[in-house]
Please model this.
Amino acid sequence: MSTNTTNVQGVSDQHVCALTDDQLKTMFLTADTGGLRDEGKIKQLKHVVRKMIFPGMKFVPGEGIERGNHSGVFGSYEMPDLRMEKGFVHEIMKHVGMQNQDKTMEQKVAYWTKYHPIVKSCIQNERSSRTSAMKDCMIQGKVISERLF
Model:
């Protein structure tokens, strides 16, 4: 079992109570998402993913991990390691204002639990539309080259 620790605000500090992997996993499993999603936050989140996150990423770590098949390892959309200070989840949380010092780990977990389906679908939709656009370009190029010969 891993013993990675970070304090409740997400900043390494030996004087504040630290979270273990088990404590963070328990937070994810018992997170209160607090009702309906805010449309303004959804719009902001989609903008962040499309304009700031997706252009710089090739692969999504943990994308193949199915829900419930974590075996103690963080990394899926449903249960990322929010203590890490790198990666696409950290960048998303930073751009939407959830990496501030005044946000507790419980607030970060609740936010991610509530809005991670939006992030997942946005990345999948963006990937699909770009793949389709590349395919269309290749088909048009093939048709043009056949007409030339």
